[in-house]
Write a structure and sequence with these properties.
Elements lengths: L10 E5 L4 H12 L3 E6 L2 H13 L3 E6 L5 H15 L4 E4 L14 H28 L4 E6 L10 H20 L5 E8 L12 H10 L14 H10 L7 H12 L9 E4 L10
Bound molecules: NADP nicotinamide-adenine-dinucleotide phosphate.
Length: 275
């Protein structure tokens, strides 16, 4: 009979666990038995996930922090190790996109994307590997990239995800002699709050094409029921965050001599937004 709690006695950190893909990954790892540290900025959303994990008999802790602050990333890893004595899985998921052309883009939005999608992720990798080595873990680093890294014309956001792919491959090489594996996950369009900084006309068009009457507002999170309905009604175009989470669970439950190096999880139809 398959083990329903393959991650029992393991410690996992998921950044950006307050929404979308990170939230789904945190819940999956928690259901699979890991003590999950949910890291993010929105306590209420993470509290709900913590309760969901506890309902399945799992253990979860919440750590508030901003991934752009390198000291806070280190503190996140330190507190997971202090509480459980170990670190086995680090999912560097927090990320965001401000779409826009290079000629008309705002340097502050580029800085935010670079500091969140790239700097926060590299510091998360470094801090986690040091912690995994110090407890002799059979560890897994999971970096959430994007299918945007498969195109060369995906703008500044795409450039940050190309960087994630290079960081994942370089770290995998550096860790060949360690018992730590590196998985790079490239999701396609997924029904989450990711489009919160996208042009409203674009988001509202997708919502109305999926048969719903709802007006999204710039910068605001969509209610979970709208995200669910959107995904159910537009399955060809929008993936489900739990499908990405299942892929992550698969990667981190393989034997340590198996490195699942890259995974692309995407809906059947490709959706690209002109950057
Ligand atoms: N959805 C897609 O179509 C898609 C496709 C390919 C790749 N991805 C990647 O998947 C990852 C997760 O995105 P998602 O789709 O789940 O979007 P989401 O629903 O907007 O979730 C993003 C998460 O990252 C967190 N975050 C952003 N900036 C942060 C910061 N400075 N410090 C701490 N947390 C921060 C957000 O927290 P707050 O709520 O506090 O901002 C949120 O929890 C990202 O790396 C994204 O690039 C998404």
């Amino acid at each position: 009979m398959p083990n329903s709690r393959p991650l029992e006695n393991r410690t996992a950190i998921v950044t950006g666990a307050s929404s979308g893909i990170g939230r789904a990954i945190a819940e999956k790892l928690g259901e699979a038995g890991a003590h999950v540290f949910l890291a993010g900025r929105n306590t209420q959303a993470m509290q709900e996930s913590k309760q969901n994990i506890e309902k399945c008999g799992g253990v979860a802790s919440i750590q508030i922090g901003d991934i752009r602050d390198t000291a806070q990333v280190q503190a996140l890893v330190d507190s997971a190790v202090a509480a459980t004595g170990r670190l086995d899985i680090m999912v560097n998921n927090a990320g965001l996109e401000f779409p826009g052309s290079i000629m008309e883009g705002d340097p502050e939005s580029w800085r935010t994307m670079l500091e969140t999608n790239v700097l926060g992720l590299i510091v998360g990798c470094q801090a986690a590997v040091k912690a995994m080595r110090s407890c002799n873990a059979q560890g897994h680093i999971v970096n959430i990239s994007s299918v945007s890294a498969q195109r060369n014309n995906s703008g500044v956001y795409g450039a940050t995800k190309h960087a994630v792919n290079v960081i994942s491959s370089s770290l995998r090489d550096e860790l060949e002699e360690d018992t730590i594996r590196v998985t790079n996950v490239m999701p396609g369009a997924t029904s989450t709050n990711f489009a919160r900084h996208f042009p409203r006309e674009f988001v509202n068009k997708i919502i109305s094409l999926s048969g719903m009457e709802f007006e999204a507002k710039e910068g605001e999170h969509l209610p979970p029921e709208v995200l669910d309905e959107l995904q159910k009604n537009a399955k060809q175009l929008l993936g489900n965050a739990y499908d990405v989470a299942n892929a992550v669970l698969y990667a981190v439950t393989q034997p340590i001599e198996v490195n699942v190096a890259e995974i692309v999880v995407r809906p059947p139809r490709a959706m690209t937004l002109a950057h």
